[in-house]
Amino acid sequence: MPETPTPVVFIHGLWLHASSWDPWQEVFTRAGFAPVAPPWPGDAPTVAACRADPGPIGNRGIDEVVAHYAGLIRALPARPVIIGHSFGGLVTQKLLGQGLGAAGVAIDPAPIKGVRVLPGSALRVASVALRNPLNRTRAVSLTFDQFRYGFANAVPEVEASELYDRWTIPAPGRPLFEAALASFQPHSPAAVDTANPERGPLLLIAGGADHTVPPSVVRATQRLYRGSAAAGAVTDLHTFPGLGHSLTIDSGWRQVADRILSWLVEKELSATAGPAAARQ
To answer: I want to staple 244 with a disulfide (CB 3.0 to 4.6 A). Which of 48, 154, 173, 182 is the partner?
Structure first.
């Protein structure tokens, strides 16, 4: 039987459209993988359509998003490498903890339950939604100034403007409320099975200049995996000094993608799953 290209599932976070992964899909295809970048439930096929009618985007919570991607993953011919950014990184960790990924990469991941580090810059970004309780069920948009601070603080203003115009869409406010209340809820949607020793290897990536998910948040996330790491599960951390939250879409994205590809080679995660790996 012919070998099966290893699937890669890209998961975007809040305020970015799934098409922002298009350059990544080209690189991973050339590397021999079979990438897909499905949108969140409620997102329209294009940036323009999401902006024109943000209604369907609102009131989508973490559990709904996880279930959406879990269903897509179960339909794939083999367990994928799951790569997520921001809240997509939180979703990636939940899916990996459920045993649905051959490996996971969480880039500037939103804080999971148990992360109590709350830098002021992160609170400032989250307040875009949290300052109005009605935003829990709404789609919330970023102004350019908010995007500049939260995402594109580490790139020139001209580039920031181009990124804002090209990729940004309204996002549901509910995930931000769920993450903010995680410490007070025994069964929070932001909880991840960090103790699962059977999960695939995980790479956490931090942008050294990130305002939305500062490196201290990513380091705190890694510490939550100490139990499974002691049992042999891999949890690596790599920080890119000088990169901000827009590191998946700005001029520095390729170095991030290349580091992930190198890590997959280091962990002996081949671009071809082979017939024996299907749905293991």
So the answer is: 154
pTM greater than the 0.90 cutoff: yes
**pLDDT > 70 fraction of the chain, expressed in percent and rounded:** 96
- CA-only gyration radius of the chain, Å: 17
List Cβ neighbours of 264 (8 Å cut-off, separation of 6 or more).
81, 103, 271
Distance CA 27, CA 117 (A): 34
**Residues 160, 153: Cα–Cα separation, whole Å:** 8
Cβ atoms of residues 173 and 137 within 8 Å = yes
Asked if residue 221 lies in contact with residue 203, where contact means CB atoms within 8 angstroms, the answer is: no
The domains found in the chain, sorted by start residue, are 7-275 (3.40.50.1820)
Sign, CA torsion 210/211/213/218: positive
Q: What sign for the dihedral angle of Cα 214, 27, 76, 200?
A: negative
